[in-house]
Amino acid sequence: MAPKEDMLPPGWEDLDRQMGQLFMMGFDGTTVSPQIRSLIEDYHLGSVLLSAKNLKCNSTLLPFPLLEKFRAAEEATRLVLELQNIARDAGHPVPLLIVLDQENGGVNSLYDEIYIRQFPSAMGVAATGSKSLAHEVAVATAQELKAVGINWILGPVLDVLTNARNQPLGVRTTGDDPQEASQYGVQFMKGYQQAGLATCGKHFPSYGNLEFLGSHADVPIITESLEQLSLNALIPFRNAINHGLDAMMVGGVSMSSAGMNVMHACLSDQVVEELLRKDLKFEGVVVSECLEMEALTHNIGVGGGTVMAKNAGCDVVLLCRSFPVQQEAINGLKLGVENGIIGRARIEESLRRVLDLKARATSWEQALNPPGLLSLTQMQPSHTNLSTRAYNDSITVMRDKSNLLPLSNLIDPCEELLLLTPLVKPLAASAVTLSVNESAHGGGNPSSWEQTSSVMSGESVFKELGRSLSRQRNGRVLHTSYTSNGVRPIHEDLVKRASAVIVVTADGYRNKYQQSFAKHISLLCQFHDSSSGERREKPLIVVSVSSPYDFAMDFSIGTYVCTYDFTETALQALVKVLYGELTPTGTLPGSISRSQKIHQSRQHWLVENWNEERDANALDALLEAMRDDCPQGQRSEVLGATSSSFLLRKEDIDEAHFVVRNSSTQALYGFCATYFFRSSGTGVIGCLIVDPARRKLSIGHSLHSRAIRSLLQRKGMKRFQLGSRLPGIYLGIPTVSSVERKRLRQWFANLGWNTSLSRPVCSVVLRNLTTWTPPDGLTATLQNADVVYDLVYGWNFARTVLDHIKTNARQGVADIYRIALGGAPHCGIIRAKRPSDDMILGSVVVYNERSPLAEYMPVLRATHTPVGGISSPVISPCADDYSTVMQGLILLAIRQIRRFNANAVVMDCVDGDGNFDCLSSMGFSMLHSFEEVNCDAATWTMLHPS
User: Which residues form the Glycoside hydrolase family 3 N-terminal domain (predicted)?
Assistant: First the structure.
């Protein structure tokens, strides 16, 4: 939406001057370069991005007496003032916007050990549990930047860490809870604004759940649908907009989901104009991701990308450093206007937004008179106290099962303490794309505008940690590092020698060698005492100094401490906690922490084992009550299910079902079905239902607790799954409506399930089969594809089919195929094969109402008409065209079902990651949708001790 003003202020008639204000550009070097001078003087550049490469202090190269004269803050103030003077002398009507990334923690572009304070990362601040502290930290951060002349901060980070696995953001977010991220994001934003900085939320529409591809020329993908994003990831963005966010950075990620197929978000009008402007009603400045990123230059080119970004609705285009590329972008924009691709109205609309932002963020009086070191000196005492308080309050002891803390109670000063730390790179400064690249590719040259800053090298910080530990305990500390080479003989010797061990991990969740190293050391700390003949454990403390998820859910590590940063201030607070001088009060933000606080020992209801003879009729009555309770117009997942639907009676699957019942009336108040698949070591909760009239009475909690305890007793238990594909009644958390979905997700999250790692699965239906015809062109497409199809029955084909399933399918699918192989002639398997080598590219089960599989798929009876079934499509990664193979399998299955004289087709156990699009194009509609959740067995060992 354009601002209301129709006329530009005087002096803005020139097109070149207008266009210059619509770029943000960076440069190399710690002094004004000829290139940045030319951009300001000749191209009227309106915003300059400063990063660590512009603000490094060279004091380490100077003689000691001169150190005080060369402070980074002083140099930064001088640099910013020179840039503003160049703009004024060049006739700029308004000052430059000077932009900086300063997220705190390890992500600081400006660092000065004397004048600029270090504060915790976003997650570290959230760990304090204090919104007011978040506001204070933001104000202090902004005051320091304002003092050196910065007027625009690239923050706050508003991403929700909906998938903690392999994500580059880590502690730069406040966690996986959208409400927490929203609340802290607004406090950070208001703090920055209170101190006079313009704000820029990032990274819209979300970097919290990215799928990584294999090439530097590719970009990470957001696979969540708009509905999923709206219910979770977009909440903090929406809330910040409602509270007056000044600007929004739109990322360069691609999006691929139902209704959204975008190569680069910041170049898409679907994302900028439709989603951000119209749906979220954002009226501020929109900033693009850096158009110099490799994937964009490779796919589109900077000139074309600039035109696309402007047409998509971006107001300011970011280009980080290459002068020829920056010129190319400016010339591309001018050419786009001259050729009529971009209208002058759009240029002027963006210009009004930028000028409005400048009017609120700066003036020539402010720009030419930065307060500098005098102001920073006055702030220093209060900001130092705030930094110490924030770090002290953030340290989190997630577990201390054996009461090892404080260490002073365990080892004497004469005994030796061993500190093991990883060899890590210098502390990373702002690094969105750099982090993405490193996460996806294990390193490499950054293609982003965000570069690495060294607050202090990781090795230096850890050496200082060792010295602090030694000083604090007045005893000897043995300190050595470890690498991806694992546990070496020197480590083993030191472990034997020491009386207690501290292992530090830094982002071990992505650097798996660190997790493996810590686990190996844990085993070495368990030893057999030859003098007493007893098994003993040497005290071991694992400290995560970056992502807290390293061992968040691994309870084999009994004492686990999180600092969220490995800045010196954070590690000073850690030392105080380890020796009992500071009582830790921090808590991990988000759902994991909440789940660990649930006190599971209360069992308000007596839970009994299911007895088929006694409870079958009562369960049928409970299922009927569930169906009756379903709102009109919504489908109940138990439609067609009976008490016998839950009974598999398979030799390799152990069943244990539980009930809460009224022993007098025999009525069931709740039912839980569990299955243990021995072949994979997976324990499954296949159903958990409570009488609608008796909800919110802890019946569900009691059933869940008993189910988990029962499954933990199974020999070979490796992982848990919420949702069962066999029997196919509840495939996971039902998603009947957005409100109910949110409530159920929260309920299961409070029980300990990490619902942020869920994956969609659904059942679909094709009605009016007698009149159905394939989509235009589908038959011809299949005929042209280099794939052949066949229909097979019986165990003669078991080996090749099950090998294909084993390598390509999820838990439970193989059991469905085994039933199908033994169910001829009412069950069959359609295969898609490559003619050249007979390799199976895809398969699907097809069956009718008389097949043995139909007994376990009550969804088949949900249409109240003669129906055939399709189940569990499995497509190999080797298939060149996923959709074509899938549609070919489904088309042949439909033709087979027509021979059964069926009027409809129900397809169950469909993975929802993108499959629904190709099915809906064939006429299928959604019947039921679910969220399947998996987790390691270790998740429950603390919540449900044996």
Answer: 15-356
What's the CA gap between 48 and 503, in Å, rounded?
A: 42
pLDDT digits (tens, 9 = 90+) for 283-337: 999 999 999 887 677 778 899 999 999 999 999 999 988 999 999 999 999 999 9
Number of domains in the chain: 4
b/e code 589-606 from CB counts within 10 Å (16+ = b): bbbbbbbbeeebeeeebe
Question: Do 710 and 856 reside in the same domain of the chain?
Answer: no
Domain end (from 362, 381, 408) = 362
Q: Is residue 833 part of a domain?
A: yes
The DSSP 8-state label assigned to residue 157 in this structure reads B
For residue 703, the surrounding DSSP H or E stretch is helix 699-712
**Residue found by looking up tokens 């050595």 in the block:** 480
Q: Is residue 261 part of a domain?
A: yes
Residue at a domain's end among 554, 569, 597? 597
Alpha carbon distance 647, 669 (integer Å): 19
Looking at the fold, whether 542 and 584 belong to one and the same domain comes out as yes
Q: Are the C-beta atoms of 109 and 101 separated by less than 8 Å?
A: yes
Q: What is the CATH number of the domain that holds 666?
A: 3.40.630.30
pLDDT, tens digit, for every residue of 739-755? 677 778 878 887 888 78
Residue 773 has φ and ψ, to the nearest 5°, of -130, 150
Structural domain including 836 reads 773-922
Q: Are both 620 and 590 inside the same structural domain?
A: no
- In DSSP terms, 833 is beta-bridged to 788, 840
Domain co-membership, 430 together with 547: yes
Q: Does any domain span residue 107?
A: no
b/e sequence 233-255, b meaning 16+ C-beta within 10 Å: bbbbbbbbbeeebbbbbbbbbbb
Cis omega before residue 548 (within 30°)? no
**pTM for the structure as a whole:** 0.65
Helices (H), 499-639: 512-524, 568-578, 591-597, 612-629
Residue 674 inside a domain? The answer is yes
Q: Residue 791 — φ and ψ, nearest 5°? A: -115, 125
CA-based Rg of the chain, rounded to a whole angstrom? 31
DSSP labels, 45-58: --EEEE-HHHH---
Integer Cα distance of 674 and 610 in angstroms: 11
